[in-house]
Amino acid sequence: MKMFILFIVALGVQAAAGQEGYPVPPNADGRLFYIQHSNNHNTFVYDANFSGYKKLDANEPVTIYRINYEDGGVKEPLTSIQRKMAYGINFKNKGQNVFEFSLAAYPEKTLLLKLHSNGKPYVSVTVNGKPIVLRKMFLYCNKLGTKVSHIDFYGTDASHKDVKERFFISK
Asked: Which of 6, 41, 94, 123 is close enough to 69 for a disulfide, judged by CB 3.0 to 4.6 Å?
């Protein structure tokens, strides 16, 4: 998490309030989830990467990119700093079409990528003891971007009901 904080500081991002008015990235086949934060509207998008019909790519199961809404919604690859210190992933192949991974900035939180029987990919995560099929994360940073106080996880529960779980970052 410390690396993520340093990354935010390095960008010199401006503070913004809450989630109102945040853009939603256009839907895409294979969309897993996206991440936004309280310091600007730029969005980090995670899509499944297939190597064949109903087969996730074993070498790179997730494609990650940034939508730069501060510059007109331009789609950009992650910089090496973003990939290594914050938004990149480290994954382990756990079997056919099953991958365990974590974000570079917070390796303590494990996520699981799988395919439904219909071939649609999804990511699940357990937050506060509750399993969620993840749709988005929102990070709450201080004005300087030097600290993340908490993360809101949005998705659906086992009954397909929309849920939001708030996870506080412990020091």
From this structure: 41
